[in-house]
Structures are given as C-alpha cells and as structure tokens.
Amino acid sequence: AWVRVKRRLRAEVGEDVFTSWLARLELSGLENGQASLSVPTRFLKSWIEAHYLDRIVTTFRSEFAGVSGIAITVRSALREPGQPARRPAPRLVVEGGGATGPLGGPQPVAATSPLPGSDRDEFAGAPLDGRLTFDSFVLGRSNALAQAAAERIAQNDRGTALYNPLYIHAGVGLGKTHLLHAAGNAARIDGRRAIYLTADRFMYGFVASLKAQTSHAFKERLRGIDLLIIDDVQFIQGKTIQQEFGHTLNALIDAGRQVVVAADRPPSELESMDERVRSRLAGGLVVEIAPLDEDLRIGILSQRLTAVAAAHPGFEVSPAVVSYVANAISTNGRDLEGAVNRLLAHATLTGTAVTIETAETAIRDLVRNREPKRIRIEDIQKLVASRYNVSRSDILSERRTAAVVKPRQIAMYLSKVLTLRSLPEIGRRFGGRDHTTVLHAVRKIEKALDGDTTLSEEVELLKRMLQE
Ligand code: ADP
Ligand code: MG
C-alpha cells in the first residue's frame, strides 16, 4: 500500500516535483492509527510539511484506512535506503537521455533522473531529451523569433549582452521546453557545458546545499558553466531563493556566460518575483511564442505523422484528415501529439485506414469546449429568484403567493428543459416536492408560453443567460 501511495503522489505532483521533494519519503512506522514517515534531512521535512503535507495525508488515508495522524521525522542521514553508501563523483554535465531516434519513435520511459541534489554537495541538472532539437522544431510565424534567438544563444558568440538573459514566454504546450532542450543539446554538441534545470530543481539544489552548508559549492558549480537553462522560472519562489537566483544570474551574465529561461508569462507579470531579479530577467531579450496558427499546427502534425509512419509501415493519414485535426485542435503541441498517438492507436487496433469520421472519434476527448455547458439546478434557482425579486429560499419554501409561485414554476420548467434531471429529482431539489407538482409546473409554463409573448421572451432570455 505504501508503494501505491508513492505512486499516486508521483502521478499527482508530477515527475519533477516528486523526484525533487518526495522521492525519499519512507514509511517508518505505523501504530495505533499513527503513521510515521521519514526523510533524510530537516530541510526536506520542513519543506514537505509546508508544501505537501495535506496532499500526503489525503493520499495516505485513502490507502491506509483508519490512520488518524501522520508525523514526519528525520531519519539518520548516514545512509539512504536502497542507495550505495558512497556515491559516484558529482557529474556536472548530464548527458542527453540517450534517446536518439526520430520524434514519435518509442517514448523513452520517464527519465530516471539522478537526484537533483543531496545533503552533500552533489548536484546535477535534469537530463536533456535528445529528441528535442532544433531539427525537430517546426518553424512558423509564431515561434520563428524565439527559435532564432535560442539557436543564436546556443552558439553563443560571447559578448552578445543583448541576448542575455534570453527570456522565452508562452502558454502551455507551445514549445518552450522543446526550445530549451534544443539549445542545451546544441551547446553540448559544440562541447559547451550546459545545465538544464526546472525551477523545482533549482530551488532544491540551492536550499539543500545551503542546509548542508555547502551552498558555495552549488554556486560555484552553476557559475562554472557556459549555459544555464532554467525552465518554468515563474515557479521560483521564496525570498532567499529568488535572491540567490538573482546572484547566480548576475554572476553568470557579468562573466559573459549565457542564461536562458522560459516562463508562462512575460517578466512584467511575475508578480511574486523579487523586483531586482525581475528587472534583470527583463534586461536581455524577451521573446514570446504566440499560439500556433493553422499552418504551424499542420506542420507539427505532418512532422509527427511522418516520424510515426516510418516506424509503423502502412499507417497513412490523408491531407484531409490532417487539416481536419489541425482545425479541431487549436490548443497546443501536446494535444497535437496526443492526437497523432490516438490516430495511430485507432488505426492499429481496428486495422482500418484513418478517415475523418474515425479521426473524429479518436480525438474526441482532446477537442475541448465544444460541449454545451452543464447547467445546475441551483444556478437556475438563483438566477430566476434574482430576476423576480424573490429569494432562493422563497422558491424552495411552501409559500403560495403569486409573487413566488410564478418564478418557482419557471425555475422548475427551466430545470426540466435545461438539465437532464428527472421530475422526482427536480422535485427533491425544490424543497422536497412531489414529481407531480413539477410536472404540473412544467405543463403550466409550456401552455403559457404558447400565447404569452412577454413570458416567452422572458424565458428565452433566462435560458440564454444560463447557457452563457
Ligand atoms: P511548453 O514547454 O511550452 O509547455 P513543450 O515544449 O513541452 O511546451 O511542447 C509540447 C509538445 O509539443 C512537445 O512535445 C513539443 O515537442 C511539441 N512542440 C511544440 N512546438 C513545436 C514545434 N514548433 N515543432 C515541433 N514540436 C513542437
Ligand atoms: Mg514546458
């Protein structure tokens, strides 16, 4: 059960957060409804308690019924369970994931990344994905500038302070991480030392080494590299950590080393970032990747499909289907990839060619916001009450004055036509009334709508307001 708790936590918080903070959590005791979890350092204990305790408690309880309390303790730091007593020398530069195949080939198993730091001064970046290169990055109007800048800094002809730091921002799935990996991969091919870190890893590396009083080692390490890449920089939190981040930025940039970061928003909107750090981040080149236009979506889809087809002979998708998918999915690169995988799965499982109809079925779950909004009875009651100047409790009450009966009946009618609820269910939600009362109300309003234009307009308006 403990293994399941950890697996679920990993799924809930994501690979990176899990590796950084929760991977070394162990179950060390379970008695009289009290569970004891342990971590190797005091720092981890306080960090987990501050950020993840609620989630851990919830997940834990769902696997271990009857546990009333959870305590986190610090276990002896001498030896980690399942780890050799002595670790290999720290690696400054982590090699790419080793995956070289074309995009769309078999996905490497979730990177078994090295621990980002430890109580000692060991520290490594996250691995680079070897498939995320400039070659596999499809160019379009919305990302050309960001791509050009990333390629430029990967080659870093020193002294281009104009590009330092390079700050790339865009919504989710628009290719930020892809470009960062591409820059890191390119720099390493040229023999430069590049480190790729997510915000979580940066924080972990810094704070863990600070607690172990080796923070200078962490700083020296970072300052000794040619290219520092930090992804999702908006997540770097905490005053001390942000200031340290600022020092690292300054030291690198002043020494002519390149820094590139990605974020989900422009520097001016990093509200919780230290002011000086924010202005330093804004002081180089800031480029945005705009939402993918249709050409780019078709480009990305075609590239993926070509790669997948190479590995799956017989899998073919017509231009008509490509353009259908590109239109149906306007969101981002991740969903486009998801669509390709679903098309492949569908074609493989059914052994039939992909048509627009089968594509529609295959990608249905990726096509968002096409479904009508689900309307709740409670919302109907509130809206109708406010339109007729009564309160919602009047509508639910037994009162039978005309001023209350009419809005109540209208609300019941709307509940019948706008929700999938049954008459008895609607009756229950209207203060426990019988279903015949609801039926009576529905019939009455239906009849009235026939001749009463004022009422029909009124009801039509209410419908629209609810559907918006
Ligand atoms: P972000 O970091 O901005 O959220 P990612 O870089 O993770 O987005 O992109 C999501 C997926 O879409 C990745 O698999 C990426 O390779 C792909 N992708 C995004 N833009 C492009 C592009 N221009 N060319 C090829 N693949 C892309
Ligand atoms: Mg990303």
UniProtKB/TrEMBL annotation:
Keyword check for Nucleotide-binding: yes
Region annotated Domain IV, binds dsDNA sits at 348-468
Checking InterPro entries in the record gives: AAA+_ATPase (IPR003593), Chromosome_initiator_DnaA (IPR001957), Chromosome_initiator_DnaA-like (IPR020591), Chromosome_initiator_DnaA_CS (IPR018312), DnaA_C (IPR013159), DnaA_dom (IPR013317), DnaA_N_dom (IPR024633), DnaA_N_sf (IPR038454)
Q: Which GO terms describe its biological process?
A: DNA replication initiation; regulation of DNA replication
User: How is this protein named in the record?
Assistant: Chromosomal replication initiator protein DnaA
Instruction: Using the UniProt record, give the first listed, main subcellular location.
Output: cytoplasm
Q: Where is the composition biased (Gly residues)?
A: 95-104
The record's keywords, sorted A to Z, are: ATP-binding, Cytoplasm, DNA replication, DNA-binding, Lipid-binding, Nucleotide-binding
Residue span(s) of domain AAA+ ATPase = 162-291
Task: Extract the CDD domains matched here.
Answer: AAA (cd00009), Bac_DnaA_C (cd06571)
Gene for this chain? dnaA
- Family classification: Belongs to the DnaA family.
Q: Indicate the quaternary assembly.
A: Oligomerizes as a right-handed, spiral filament on DNA at oriC.
Please name the GO terms that the record assigns under molecular function: ATP binding; DNA replication origin binding; lipid binding
Q: Where does ATP bind?
A: 173, 175-177
Where is the region Disordered? 80-118
Keyword DNA-binding appears in the UniProt entry = yes
The record's comment about this protein's domains reads: Domain I is involved in oligomerization and binding regulators, domain II is flexibile and of varying length in different bacteria, domain III forms the AAA+ region, while domain IV binds dsDNA.
Residues covered by the Chromosomal replication initiator DnaA C-terminal domain: 376-445
Q: Name one GO cellular component term.
A: cytoplasm
> Which segments carry the region annotation Domain I, interacts with DnaA modulators?
1-76
Per the entry, what this protein does is: Plays an essential role in the initiation and regulation of chromosomal replication. ATP-DnaA binds to the origin of replication (oriC) to initiate formation of the DNA replication initiation complex once per cell cycle. Binds the DnaA box (a 9 base pair repeat at the origin) and separates the double-stranded (ds)DNA. Forms a right-handed helical filament on oriC DNA; dsDNA binds to the exterior of the filament while single-stranded (ss)DNA is stabiized in the filament's interior.
Protein location: Cytoplasm
Could you tell me which HAMAP family the record lists for this protein?
Answer: DnaA_bact
